[in-house]
Amino acid sequence: MSTSQRSESIHHFFDGFVTTKTTLSEFVTKYVMSIECRFEAENHANLKSLDTEAYLRTSSPFEKQAAGIYTRSMFNKFQHELLEGAGCQPQFIEANGPCVTLRLKSFERVQIKGVTKDLQKMNTVTYNKDSAEVECTCRSFQFRGYLCRHAMWALQYCGVEKIPDKYFLNRWRKDLRYREGLEASVVREEDRKHPSSRYTILIYRLMKVAQEASSFESQFDHLLAEIPNILLNVMQSKKVTSVQIDNRNAQHNAPERTV
Ligand SMILES: [Zn+2]
Fold first, then answer.
1. Would you say residue 256 lies in a domain?
2. 259 in any annotated domain
3. How close is the Cα of 15 to the center of ligand 1, in Å?
């Protein structure tokens, strides 16, 4: 990745949070806010992938394959990359044994500080048919964890119909997320901090309960009768917690007594 490409990614990441007038201490606060906002948005998008089909915008087998594997937030990034492949102009360079090398000129639209810019880029992609490895000079897979438009273009050029499995990282596979959500007996500390993460974990676990309980009518009836009690418990403990917080705030804000 070139310095300008890295700079574009950084600008994109902080877009809307940081300006040239932001001080260092404000920067730290806004950095945390920026990460949390993205975290919440990704969680929300990933929940959607559990019960809705991704909208396919092409007839590409790559898009269909990715829709079945990726969490929704990751699929959206992948789909954008695939569609942007339309702006690539390939040039065959050489075929050397199992390796095919292409050079791709691409026209890419990027947002820098809220301003849209059109850039021309040149990248070289090599595909090794024997090892099913594809490498691009933009190093998208190494830096972002998913294949770039150039690599996908080269795979299609070489007649590959399925992206090799190793290019779908475990951390963005919805089947693994779902399984981890069900099997993890300990909830990670960072997942406790965000309401949307807590919500996602509960949904995963409750889905499993629903799956099991719906198999037999007696279990279904039993669970259905239990739900109002669980809800009542949650509402009561919520009330107790908010009273405790109010009391703590009142003590904290009370003026100090002078003797
Ligand atoms: Zn690339």
1. no
2. no
3. 23
**Helices marked H in 52-185 — which ranges?**
61-69, 72-84, 140-144, 149-157, 174-183
Model pTM score:
0.58
* Å from CA of 239 to ligand 1 middle: 54
Q: Which residue in this structure is represented by tokens 């007649």?
A: 159
Q: β-pairing, 99-112 with 133-136?
A: unpaired
- Ligand 1 centroid, distance to 68 Cα (angstroms): 23
Q: Which domain holds residue 206?
A: 174-247
Alpha carbon of 57 to ligand 1 centroid (Å): 21
User: pLDDT tens string for the chain (259 positions)?
Assistant: 455 555 555 555 555 556 667 676 676 666 666 666 666 666 666 666 666 788 899 999 999 999 999 988 889 999 999 999 988 999 999 999 999 999 999 988 887 778 888 889 999 999 999 999 999 999 999 888 999 999 999 999 999 999 999 999 887 888 776 665 556 556 677 667 777 677 777 777 777 787 778 888 888 899 889 988 888 888 888 777 777 777 777 777 666 555 4
Q: Are 16 and 106 contained in the same domain? A: yes
Ligand 1 center to 126 CA (angstroms): 10
Taking the centre of ligand 1 as the mean of its atom positions, its distance from the CA of residue 151, in whole angstroms, is: 6
Query: Per the structure, how many domains does the chain have?
Result: 2
The string of DSSP letters for 41-90 reads HHHHHHHHHHHSPPPP-S--HHHHHHHHHB-HHHHHHHHHHHHHGGGEEE
